[in-house]
């Protein structure tokens, strides 16, 4: 086999990438277009971004997204780390099953998760609102944290903790002074992923949000249904950039070596 | 320091009928031994022999089975005592330097845990680094990933020694560093042991390392102690074929014993030879002996010195090893026998042996070791 790629393969790959990313490029470009209609380029403007600041529904959506994101991320990070510790460090009945179940939320269709959560909340008579959105987001974010932290734990040298104990540190001190600093990049990386998932989620949120409270993606969708205006492009671009930055950070931290 | 009541020979560690299972695997099987205060004690054996488990039982990372005997440190049973309640220090095979802390913070860690006043810490850290010959000015502020393997090794040692533990446990600490540095560290560890008066318990699979450093060696095999003794006892009087094979090289000969005066004659397929009296010998018993290559000599057949045992064979190979020459002689029953001869200069005074020569290997009856049947 030759290591040189055939020319047709390069061309084919280029086409696929174009197909995948052209719409996004167009979206970003037209968020700066000085025209009310997204059909032709008429000049550069920041106007659509400025417009966003005047729209109370978008600002409220952003606020809701940030509250839900922060709360669900915090809870997922703490409990995800604890679950990862339990899975990595203890042998107990049902451990393998528990680990397998972790991946279920990652592969279950969002619409199924959304419907099942809605049914659960209705059955339990929980009023829909920011609280239910947060619970739903925790339900799918926690797996991300567990997977990332677990990977880091499995790569961690157990002798570090043993060394700390021979130096006089008890279990709790060892956990805070040795284990947590080693896991920190994994926990942050998992938390960033969790926040990204929460910030981007539309489908599940749409089931459990009720009427009063809407996160940013819900607000955007409602706007699109009414009429498409270039502000949509602007808010979409902001979401895109924010997500990309978070994913980049999560990936970089996830790769950071312990030693 | 030590209370006056404790004599130098008082054991600081006592294992009494200690067993440890992992599932169905017997890692340590009913072992008993003492470690004396201040001695350099080695646990030697191949991987899986139980030496590391024994060390971990002493460190407190493992606990003996229920009814699995007692581990005592300084006279107190410590079976269930946690590692941080045991006055032990440990150096790990992979050093286990805390990667997120600088060299000085690594060394200070134990002092901080023991609530040493903050004002004393920098001085003790410097002192510990100097003790392991690591220049504090140059290395104290470095992070572990800026150190070589040998330097990490020294940091690990300083970190353990700064607390002056009663017992220092070392788990194959020299396994990952190169030969020259390893030889140097062997001597330094030995010197630290003697100068500080601490008890060292050293786990290794390297027999030469154990012989070089130890006051006493416990040779382990499948969870039991095959033999415990000084390096000379282990090397010169191996009790079993396992020990003879594991420590240095040995030639093995065997046959049926018959009493002959104060000694015994052994009839073997390669000819008869004499062995000294040994416990457990009986008329007609099958015996096996081990003879070290350097205690054998090689002569033309029929020219052996009288009073020595001699067994004839054919030279198979002459191997040049630098300070010695190994002549491998195939005996009558097909087994090989290695004879080590001092190299007196092959260019000036070459050995008179070449492949295919008839020769006899000889040894003094008292230079053989009668082995216990395993």
Overview of the structural elements:
- The complex is a heterodimer of chains A (259) and B (374).
- By secondary structure, chain A is mainly α.
- Chain A has two domains: 7-45, no CATH class; 47-255, MetI-like (MetI-like fold), CATH 1.10.3720.
- Chain A is built from twelve helices and no strands.
- Chain A has helices spanning 7-30, 47-54, 56-89, 95-102, 104-107, 110-123, 130-154, 158-166, 171-200, 203-208, 216-226, 230-255.
- Chain A is globular.
- Chain A starts with 6 loop residues before the first helix and ends with a helix.
- By secondary structure, chain B is an alpha+beta fold.
- In chain B, the strands form four sheets. Chain B has a six-stranded mixed beta sheet, sandwiched between helices. In chain B, strands 13-12-11-14-20 form a five-stranded antiparallel beta sheet, with no helix packed on it.
- Residues 1-7 of chain B have low confidence and may be disordered.
- The interface between A and B is medium-sized, with 20 and 28 residues.
N-to-C CA distance of chain A: 38 Å
> Domains counted in the coordinates of chain A: how many?
2
Helix tally of chain B equals 9
Sequence of secondary-structure elements of chain B: EEEHEEEHHHHEHEHEEHHEEEEEEEEEE
* Main pleated sheet of chain A: none
CATH class of the largest domain in chain B: Alpha Beta
Q: Roughly what percent helix of chain B?
A: 10-25%
Q: Which pair of chains has the greatest number of interface residues, and how are they split between the two chains?
A: A-B, 20 and 28 residues
Q: Roughly what fraction of the amino acids of chain B lie in strands?
A: 25-35%
- CATH fold field value of the largest domain in chain B: Rossmann fold
Which residue ranges of chain B are poorly predicted, with pLDDT under 50 across at least 5 consecutive positions?
A: 1-7
Task: Indicate the overall shape of chain A.
Answer: globular
Strand order of the biggest β-sheet of chain B: 6-7-8-3-9-10
CATH structural architecture of the largest domain in chain B: 3-Layer(aba) Sandwich
């Amino acid at each position: 086999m030759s290591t040189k790629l055939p020319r047709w393969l390069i061309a084919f790959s280029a086409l696929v990438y174009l197909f995948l990313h052209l719409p996004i490029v167009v979206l970003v470009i037209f968020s700066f277009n000085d025209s009310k209609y997204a059909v032709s380029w008429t000049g550069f403007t920041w106007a659509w971004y400025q417009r966003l600041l005047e729209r109370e529904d978008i600002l409220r959506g952003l606020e809701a997204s940030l509250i839900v994101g922060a709360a669900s991320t915090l809870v997922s990070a703490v409990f995800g780390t604890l679950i990862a510790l339990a899975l990595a460090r203890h042998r107990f009945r049902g451990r393998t099953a528990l680990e397998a179940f972790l991946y279920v939320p990652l592969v279950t269709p969002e619409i199924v998760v959304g419907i099942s959560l809605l049914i659960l909340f209705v059955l339990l008579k929980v009023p829909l609102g920011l609280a239910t959105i947060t619970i739903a987001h925790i339900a799918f974010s926690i797996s991300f944290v567990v997977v990332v932290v677990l990977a880091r734990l499995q790569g961690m040298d157990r002798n570090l903790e043993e060394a700390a104990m021979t130096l006089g540190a008890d279990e709790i001190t060892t956990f805070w002074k040795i284990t947590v600093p080693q896991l920190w990049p994994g926990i942050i990386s998992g938390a960033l992923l969790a926040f990204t998932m929460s910030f981007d989620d539309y489908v599940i949120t749409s089931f459990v949000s009720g009427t009063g409270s809407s996160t940013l993606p819900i607000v955007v969708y409602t706007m699109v249904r009414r009429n498409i205006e270039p502000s949509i492009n602007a808010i979409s671009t902001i979401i895109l950039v924010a997500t990309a930055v978070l994913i980049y950070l999560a990936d970089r931290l996830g790769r950071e070596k312990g030693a | 320091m030590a209370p006056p009541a404790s004599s130098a020979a008082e054991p600081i560690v006592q294992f009494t009928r200690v067993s440890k299972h992992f599932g169905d695997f017997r890692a340590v099987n009913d072992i008993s031994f003492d470690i004396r205060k201040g001695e350099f004690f080695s646990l030697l054996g191949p991987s899986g022999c139980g030496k590391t488990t024994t060390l971990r039982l002493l460190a407190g990372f493992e606990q003996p089975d229920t009814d699995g005997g007692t581990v005592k440190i300084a006279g107190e049973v410590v079976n269930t005592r946690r590692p941080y309640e045991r006055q032990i220090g440990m150096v790990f095979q992979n050093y286990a330097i805390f990667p997120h802390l600088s060299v000085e913070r690594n060394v200070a860690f134990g002092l901080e845990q023991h609530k040493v006043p903050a004002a004393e810490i920098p001085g003790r850290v410097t002192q510990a680094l100097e003790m392991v010959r690591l220049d504090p000015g140059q290395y104290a502020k470095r992070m572990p990933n800026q150190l070589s393997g040998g330097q990490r090794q020294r940091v690990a040692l300083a970190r353990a020694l700064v607390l002056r533990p009663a017992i220092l446990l070392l788990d194959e600490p020299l396994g990952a560093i190169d030969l020259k540095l390893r030889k140097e560290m062997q001597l330094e560890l030995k010197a630290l042991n003697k100068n500080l008066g601490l008890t060292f318990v050293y786990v290794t699979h390297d027999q030469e390392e154990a012989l070089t450093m130890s006051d006493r060696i416990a040779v382990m095999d499948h969870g039991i102690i095959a033999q415990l003794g000084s390096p000379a006892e282990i090397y010169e009087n191996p009790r079993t074929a396992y020990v003879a094979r594991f420590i240095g090289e040995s030639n093995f000969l065997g046959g049926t014993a018959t009493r002959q005066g104060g000694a015994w004659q052994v009839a073997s397929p390669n000819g008869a030879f004499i062995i000294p009296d040994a416990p457990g010998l009986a008329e007609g018993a099958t015996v096996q002996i081990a003879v070290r290559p350097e205690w054998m000599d090689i002569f033309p057949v029929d020219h052996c010195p009288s009073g020595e045992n001699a067994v004839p064979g054919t030279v198979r190979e002459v191997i040049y090893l630098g300070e010695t020459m190994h002549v491998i002689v195939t005996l009558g029953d097909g087994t090989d026998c290695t004879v080590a001869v001092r190299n007196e200069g092959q260019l000036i005074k070459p050995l008179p042996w070449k492949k295919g020569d008839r020769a006899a290997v000889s040894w003094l009856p008292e230079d053989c070791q009668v082995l216990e049947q395993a």
